[in-house]
Design goal:
The chain folds into three domains: 1-81, Dihydrofolate Reductase, subunit A, CATH 3.40.430; 94-166, no CATH class; 204-263, no CATH class. The protein is built from nine helices and eight strands. The strands form three sheets. A three-stranded antiparallel β-sheet has the order 3-5-4, with no helix packed on it. A three-stranded antiparallel β-sheet has the order 6-7-8, covered by helices on one side. By secondary structure, the chain is α+β, with helices and mostly antiparallel strands. 8% of the residues are buried. A hairpin with a 2-residue loop joins strand 4 (111-113) and strand 5. The longest helix is centred in the middle third of the chain and has 15 residues, at 168-182. The protein is elongated. The chain has helices at 3-8, 44-52, 69-75, 129-136, 168-182, 205-217, 222-226, 239-243, 257-263, and strands at residues 21-24, 38-41, 83-89, 111-113, 116-124, 184-186, 194-197, 200-202. This is DHFR domain-containing protein. InterPro entries: DHFR-like_dom_sf, DHFR_dom, Thymidate_synth/dCMP_Mease, Thymidate_synth/dCMP_Mease_dom, Thymidate_synth/dCMP_Mease_sf. Pfam families: DHFR_1 (PF00186), Thymidylat_synt (PF00303). One of its GO terms (cellular component) is cytosol.
């Protein structure tokens, strides 16, 4: 970070914990060398050289640039910049420091806090391996195959999970997280209630797990679930309902095919 960024951090929060703080400044009068976990460098290049050498290279895994404006202008388009993490805030603020424009045509879902809509987004560098390969071989593709994939995305395992959230599994997990955080509570027939949003809802999680284990065991007795405080099948196991189907209380009979396979039950 630059000197002004360092000075903008409240005293009680600096140095930033859990990391080595590198302050870039050319000022000869700026002296914080006595502060723990803080070093001073004159430029980004000298800072990266320092971190790549012993003893820092033994403990430093990632280098993050957090500002200010001049340092970001130098870093965003630098070859060593693997990714950009940016919080996009959809409102107007009076600012006096700016960074280069970033293509925000691809963004993540936003959320609203205190009437301010925002989202945290990560952009990763994509390189054209075909173009790089051709340029390194005087325009000749080394394997002679012109149908190779045009783009290759390097895997940055150190990046936040949002980098990979376009994967369907991450979209599902994010939906669950959104329901837990911002879902609307409403009642249901089980008495446990649900958290829901338009088009999706989160049900009683322990009940879901216990019911799954109940299915896997091959049981068709609702009493097994009732003993664990799970009552989602009580309506189908009532005395009145079961008398009409000649079953003992709690016996749901052949509920799903999974139980049929275990017990050889038939409809």
């Amino acid at each position: 970070m630059g000197r002004k960024t360092w000075e903008s951090i409240p005293l009680e929060h600096r140095p930033l914990p859990g990391r080595l703080n590198v302050v870039l400044t050319r000022s000869g009068s700026f002296d914080i060398a006595t502060a723990e976990n803080v070093v001073i460098c004159g430029s980004m290049g000298s800072a990266l050289e320092l971190l790549a050498a012993s003893p820092y290279c033994l403990s430093i895994e990632k280098v993050f640039v957090i500002g200010g404006g001049q340092i970001l202008r130098e870093s965003l388009n630098a070859p060593g910049c693997d990714a950009i993490h940016i919080t996009e805030i959809e409102t107007d603020f009076d600012c006096d420091t700016f960074i280069p424009a970033i293509d925000t045509s691809i963004t993540f879902f936003s959320k609203v806090e205190k009437d301010i809509r925002h989202c945290f987004t990560t952009y990763v560098r994509v390189r054209s391996s075909t173009i790089e390969s051709l340029s390194q071989n005087n325009g000749v593709n080394p394997d002679g195959n012109s149908e190779n994939s045009k783009f290759e995305v390097k895997e940055f395992s150190f990046l936040p999970k949002m980098v990979f959230e376009r994967h369907e599994e991450h979209l599902y997990l994010r939906m669950v997280q959104d329901i837990i955080s911002d879902g609307n509570l409403k009642g249901d027939r089980t008495g446990t209630g649900t958290l829901s949003k338009f088009g999706c809802q989160k049900v009683f999680w322990r009940g879901v797990v216990e019911e799954l284990l109940w299915f896997i065991s091959g049981s068709t007795s609702a009493k097994v679930l009732q003993e664990k405080g799970i009552h989602i099948w009580d309506g189908n196991a009532s005395r009145d309902y079961l008398d009409r189907h000649d079953r003992e209380e709690g016996d749901l009979g052949p509920v799903y095919g999974f139980q049929w396979r275990h017990f050889g039950a038939s409809c």
